[in-house]
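ok so heres the complex, two chains, lmk if somethin looks off
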Amino acid sequence: MLSRTADNLYWLSRYTERADFVARILDATMRLAALPSGYGGERNEWEGAVAAAGNLDEFHRLYSALNEDTVRDFLAFSRNNPSSIANCIETARENARSVRTALTTQMWEAINGAWLELKRFNNAEMNREEFARFLDWVKNVSLAFDGSAYRTMLRSDPYWFTRLGLAIERADNTARILDVKYHVLLPETERVGGSLDYFQWTTILREVSALTAYHWVYRQSVKPWLVADLLILNRQMPRSLANCYELLVRHLDLIAEAYGRRGPSQRLASNMLARLSSARIEGIFTVGMHEFINDFVTENNKLGAAIAEQYLV
Amino acid sequence: MARAAFDEMTGTPNGHAPDGVRSAYADLKQWLDTSPPEFFDTRRSQAELFFRRIGITFAVYGDNQSTERLIPFDIIPRVLTKPEWSRLERGLKQRVTALNAFLRDLYGPQDCVKAGVVPADLIYKNPHYRLEMLGFEPPHGVYVHVAGIDIVRVDEDTFYVLEDNARTPSGVSYMLENREVMIRLFPELFAQHRVAPVENYPDALLATLRSVAPQTASRDPSVVLLTPGRFNSAFYEHSFLADKLGVELVEASDLFAKDDVVFMRTTEGPQRVDVIYRRIDDDFLDPLVFRPDSALGVPGLMSAYQAGNVTLANAVGTGISDDKAVYTYMPAIIRFFTGEEPILNNVPTWCCRDKEALSYVLDKLPELVVKEVNGSGGYGMLVGPHATKREVAEFARKLKHDPDGFIAQPTLSLSTCPTFVASGVAPRHVDLRPFVLTAADEIRIVPGGLTRVALKEGSLVVNSSQGGGTKDTWVLDD
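and the predicted structre for the whole thing:
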């Protein structure tokens, strides 16, 4: 297939996944912000939302104050933030339009329909209730798009490139949450702050849609080091780093097999999967979670670059 | 009609004061006064749709027409202030501490009977006093792990305990789902009010259940929730809780006992079970010990329990502590076991087993509420002021025939809260059921509980089986 087509499919998936991620961050942050001060821990949840789902420097260039209204505008609607939900849907649709023939009808209609509907939503007029419904709508768009891809695409290289986009974006998103919140996820031995952080942990779980899943995996009450374990190392968990790399390795292998050639991206992906498979959460805490995540993000970006160089340009 | 009731929004009888509002309700009243009616109509139908979609339904026994009904949900929340809640919380902890100590004593040294705190025949002749539990202490000495204490309010400062539920209290799923639907429908209200969260209840319940695992259990005890099955009226709640806890939802046929150890049948072979959060009554637990015709029970379960190899939550035999006749002795029981004055009082109650009380009750029957000692769900009770002469006469006969079986209370003017009814917003009577969790080492209560509301005008019966509805309960914090 054309490199340009693969590139469009890859970014189409990345941006629909990112729209969903930003919506979940906003949703969970609204909940956290509404809690009484005795439950919310530190009161800088909106700043955390920008750090996880956007870029603080960029934010401060555009707005003089950081509060719910400006963050909502920046993350959901701003044309100046390339990762705002509106821009994600716009970019996804642009990519979809250029590869219309590589998409199934259902995929195209899911993303094009969303793009048309997006115009209905106007931030300035929206109260919190309407905004909450907007976020629900965004989550449904991603669900419909991803479901269409999964159910209707031929299992060949176009499909594999959509999976690569999805997985690398997810890994990046989960790592961003960990990067912003690592200080509330402490190893078992450090009981700082105690249960004051409980609602911070459940917010993290909500951001990766894993609140109920947590209990099924660990069968005990929410513990910060197990939240870290779930997000980083647990392979059953769709948004964990380990599961994202399992997906990446599998689909890069399928591509390599089909093309009869392996390259740097296969090597980088399987190295990272091997590292994640042999790692234990205690070990990650020993090295320092912040360092671990920083390192992961660098490696994940490297893989993104390698995929681009090997296939997309 | 009952006396004028305290309205929790306006602070006045029956909510008829035009402008008065208690400060906790100030923003809500404004919201009610200024939002257009269409707004509320849409939200109410959205709430109903939400409940239908998640499948939170309730089976009403003896009603073949619709075996799956929704409990009506009222979108106007019931609000408690932090000081009000703090007092309730202290009172609840004290009461449940006493309940557990009382049970430990009744099945152990029986000091409270010897000291005359409760009459001996009330205990020893009571069908809920389980001889099987004598001389056996359940793991960590906890009997009532999950208690639902029904509380009513009659004025600004007075809360009464109406009833203790120490067997298998239900309703907590409504507390949790009501909050979820409110957060979804009214994010604006939540941004305006600082509402203490309840979503950590499943987590607290799981921690409670794990803490009481028997000594023989591993460090990672296996917990299950035992349900009578999907025909039970509370099945939704059982499946909901099991899912939130991340534990298996088992029926009796999934379990078996061998050599005094309980196992569940799994695809990987038998797996040991350490803690059973059972939502089945004592009578049905084990056909070898209790009702032999029970198909809901596990043969050999009691023997495993007595051997100390499995924890039942709640313990067997807790029914003696929430018996309606024993209830009348609760203030004395609290004093005896905690050495403190009760923080939460009982509703003044006449125990008809007492001769003087009986003649008073017979005399004043049309003014009183009379309850069967062993009844539940609002069945088998007489609400004097609402009963016909014939019903009163019939009840008087029942009373004379079996005085031990009944207690009587004055018709309380339960507080009211603004509620949506056909004609608009009107005050309706409410009660409150907070859920109290007792673990091996601590007592946990999430702030709030389930508010039940009697939707019919003037009605005091809040039970869902008799047309009661529910509300979200907000404890305001800062």
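quick notes: Chain A has a mean pLDDT of 93. thats all i got rn
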